[in-house]
Amino acid sequence: MNPISILMLGMAMSTDAFAAALARGAGMARTRLSDALKIGLIFGCIEAVTPVIGWLIGSVASELIEEYDHWVAFILLVGLGIHTIYAAVGEDGDRDMSENPGSNSLLSTALTGLATSIDAMAVGVGLAFTTVNIAVVAAVIGLCTFVMVTLGVLAGKVVGTVLGKRAEIAGGLILMIVGALILYEHLK
């Protein structure tokens, strides 16, 4: 793979995480750069690790992950989308990472990051059958995701300010649609 292909792959792998970051940013009462960077770092690290895991699995048995990856992504993304919508509809006031740690906790953020990185794991499986430096590809994917998620959280606040809870509900719907699209693509 040439450097442009690797960069394009990194950008493509970060789009799901960007959508989730917009939803996360829209739901935050105050968007601090430090919070956006933390969320970006969590997503970026997870997104960098999953293609390596997929590459290792692909090196051993590619059918293992390819058979079920779409179902796992679908269930996680739809579940997180429903949770996001439920939290937006049931929320009485604005929230912030420090004020409501349950909805923006490390575990919640990591699960969202994992849900949006399942496709990167599947890509890693495919890369196991090519001549590529998986460490370089994983680093580029992680860096692209870090940047896109950080920007998404910051931009989500602008969207949230303009649209309020509707933006958070839309973010939940986007997570559900992304999950459905992943499932559709694999089943068609």
UniProtKB/TrEMBL annotation:
InterPro entries: Mntp/YtaF, Put_MntP. The keyword Transmembrane applies. It is a multi-pass membrane protein. GO terms for cellular component: plasma membrane. Keywords: Cell membrane, Ion transport, Manganese, Membrane, Transmembrane, Transmembrane helix, Transport. It is found in: Cell membrane. GO terms for molecular function: manganese ion transmembrane transporter activity. The chain crosses the membrane at residues 6-27, 39-58, 70-89, 110-129, 135-155, 167-184. It comes from the Bacteria. Belongs to the MntP (TC 9.B.29) family. Probably functions as a manganese efflux pump. This is Putative manganese efflux pump MntP. The gene is mntP.
